[in-house]
Amino acid sequence: MRRKIPFARMAIAAALMAAAASAWAQVKIAYVDPLSGGGATIGEHGLKHLQYLVEVINARGGVLGGQKLEAVAYDNKGSPQESLVQVQKAIDAGVRFITQGNGSGAAIAISEFVAKYNERNPG
After folding, report:
1. Is 39 left (phi over 0), alpha (psi -120 to 50) or beta?
2. CB 38 within 8 A of CB 106
3. What confidence tens digit (pLDDT) does each residue in 74-113 have?
4. Which residues pair with 70 in a beta bridge?
5. pLDDT at 83
6. H-helix or E-strand spanning residue 7
7. What is the CATH number of the domain that holds 33?
8. What pLDDT is stored for residue 123 in this prediction?
9. Using CA of residue 44, residue 50, residue 22, residue 118, what is the dihedral sign?
10. Contact criterion met (CB below 8 Å) for 78 and 37
11. Are the CB atoms for 83 and 110 separated by under 8 Å?
12. Residue 63 — pLDDT band, cuts 50, 70, 90?
């Protein structure tokens, strides 16, 4: 039987591995999910889960010699199109790690956007 790993834990693990290759003072993780409207309850729950994990890691000294993690929330209103707007806002704000919890439409849109972004910006 395969063991499922919660998405937020995978996102934090990815952030930690990528941060190992850089010298950032703080590692920001964008959380793009519905935080208003009908899906807000589940989006807020996912955000609180991510914030808790970030707090635990930071309380233990952060990562890679004291770097702190920060969860930054972006409201996609449950829309794939709005997800892309929010991802661009996150990138413009210096966030380099994106997580998303609900909605396969939003997940596909974000994945394709990030793949194209990474092709154009390999660094």
Report:
1. alpha
2. no
3. 999 999 999 999 999 999 999 989 999 888 999 999 999 9
4. 28
5. 97
6. helix 7-19
7. 3.40.50.2300
8. 79
9. negative
10. yes
11. yes
12. confident
In total, how many domains does the chain have? 1
For residue 53, tell me if it sits in a domain.
yes
* Residue 9 covered by a domain: no
Band (21; pLDDT cuts 50, 70, 90): very low
pLDDT at 11 over 80: no
Q: Which two tokens stand for residue 17?
A: 């591995």
* Residue 77 falls inside a structural domain: yes
Q: Which two tokens stand for residue 31?
A: 């959380």
The DSSP code sequence of 57-120 is HHHTT-BTTTBEEEEEEEE-TT-HHHHHHHHHHHHHTT--EEEE-S-HHHHHHHHHHHHHHHHH
Look up tokens 């929010």; give the residue.
Answer: 86
Return the amino acid letter for 3.
R
CB 43 within 8 A of CB 121: no
**Which residues form the domain of 44?**
26-120
Residue 15 lies in a domain: no
Q: What is the pLDDT of residue 15?
A: 63
49 three-class SS: helix
